[in-house]
Specification:
It is a single chain. By secondary structure, this protein is an all-alpha fold. It has two domains: 2-73, no CATH class; 93-180, Leucine-rich Repeat Variant. 70% of the residues lie in helices and 0% in strands. The protein contains eight helices and no strands. The protein has helices spanning 2-20, 26-43, 53-73, 93-105, 109-119, 125-142, 147-158, 163-180. Helix 1 runs antiparallel to helix 2 (26-43) and helix 7 runs antiparallel to helix 8. The longest helix has 21 residues, at 53-73. It is elongated, with a radius of gyration of 27 Å. The relative contact order is 0.09.
């Protein structure tokens, strides 16, 4: 019975793949996962608590209907045939991530602060926002900050044109106020 169920799921896997030839197609993924689960159950049946035939038929019916539901529910799925590129230069993942890494892990708080201050005026909002947030992290971790340089940058971030920068600046201002006991607003 388990072998028949596994073969039934294998046919659903093949049908789902043949429909779109896309391994990320939800129907294919769903059927594949259940095929693997039923195959493992078939191979290692002795290791499981015995299940009556009626209960197993109910389980298999649920699995098949669930797999068919994924097939029917996403039947008109259109696979992505080309690589999904984000527009060149719209996400500066390197600098936006590096500035936070430096703020969180650099032992020399002065070097981390100088790096964050330099990038707090970057043209891209993700880099600018993360640099300002980095100043808040430095205040929280090291309990030190050059207030004459950092606080004006945080205040500038609070009025930035981009909501992302404003949000990061609010978080940084909270850290500066909490850990350095200085108003940053």
């Amino acid at each position: 019975m388990a072998l028949v169920a596994a073969l039934l799921m294998l046919s659903l896997v093949c049908a789902n793949y043949a429909l779109h030839r896309d391994v990320m197609y939800p129907g294919f993924l769903q059927a594949s996962l259940w095929f693997v689960a039923l195959s493992l159950f078939t191979v290692f049946q002795d290791m499981f608590i015995p299940v009556s035939g009626d209960v197993f038929v109910l389980l298999v019916a649920g699995v098949v209907f669930f797999g068919m539901g994924a097939f029917l529910g996403s039947y008109d799925h259109t696979p992505q045939r080309t690589r999904n590129y984000v527009a060149e230069g719209t996400l500066p993942s390197g600098p936006a991530v590096v500035v936070l890494a430096v703020a969180l892990h650099e032992v020399d708080h002065s070097a981390a602060e100088a790096f964050c201050c330099e990038l707090a005026v970057h043209p891209h909002e993700a880099v600018r926002g993360n640099a300002i947030l980095g100043l808040g992290h430095i205040a929280r971790i090291h309990r030190k900050l050059d207030l004459a340089t950092a606080v004006p940058l945080v205040r500038r971030g609070l009025t930035d044109a981009h909501s992302y920068v404003r949000g990061q600046a609010h978080s940084a201002a909270d850290d500066v106020e909490m850990f350095l006991k200085v108003s940053a607003r």
